[in-house]
Specification:
globular; four-stranded antiparallel beta sheet
Length: 158
C-alpha cells in the first residue's frame, strides 16, 4: 500500500470554521483510494465518492490528511469501521431515510451518482429523524453536516 501525506492550510478567518472539499478528478479503476482525516480519525473512500467535504480552522494541523492507495488499507473488507466522531448515522429502509444525530442542528443533503442534490433538509433536535425517500433505484450519497463536521454516507435504494 502507498501512503501520501497531504498538506492543507485553511484560509478562513482566525478562530472560525470554514467549509472545504477535496475532490478526486481521476483515478485508476482498479486501485482503491482512501482519504484519511487524521483530525476526525475517519477514512473516506474516494473511489466510491470522489468528493470529501469537511470543516477546518486555521489552527488545525497542517498534515491533517493522508491519501492511501492499494489493498492493505485500514478500512478494507472485513476490517472494523473507523470510529464515527461526529456521532451521526443514516440508513434507508422501506422508502424512509433514517438519520440519527447527536447534534441540535443538522443539515442533510442527498446526492445522486451524478452529484445532483435530490433532497435537502434542515433537522432540529438530537435523535432519530425520518425523511421520506421516493427516488428511483440506485446509489445515493447522504451528506450530514453538523457543527462538529461533515460526513458522507453511501446508501442504496432498491
Amino acid at each position: 500500500a502507498l501512503e501520501i501525506p497531504l498538506g492543507f492550510i485553511p484560509n478562513g478567518p482566525a478562530g472560525e470554521s470554514s467549509s472545504y472539499y477535496i475532490e478526486l478528478d481521476a483515478s485508476p479503476a482498479d486501485l482503491p483510494l482512501y482519504l484519511e482525516d487524521r483530525l476526525l480519525e475517519t477514512f473516506h473512500p474516494l473511489d466510491a465518492n470522489p468528493v470529501y467535504h469537511f470543516t477546518a480552522r486555521p489552527s488545525d494541523p497542517g498534515l491533517r490528511f493522508v491519501l492511501h492507495a492499494g489493498k492493505d488499507l485500514p478500512t478494507g473488507i472485513g476490517d472494523p469501521a473507523p470510529s464515527n466522531t461526529i456521532k451521526t448515522s443514516a440508513w434507508l429502509y422501506d422508502q424512509i431515510l433514517h438519520v440519527k444525530t447527536g447534534h441540535p442542528s443538522t443539515v442533510v443533503e442527498i446526492f445522486d451518482q451524478m452529484g445532483r442534490v435530490v433532497k435537502r433538509e434542515q433537522l432540529t433536535g438530537e435523535g432519530l429523524h425520518q425523511l421520506p425517500f421516493n427516488e428511483t433505484s440506485g446509489v445515493y450519497f447522504v451528506r450530514i453536516i453538523t457543527g462538529r463536521g461533515i460526513e458522507v454516507i453511501r446508501i442504496r435504494s432498491d
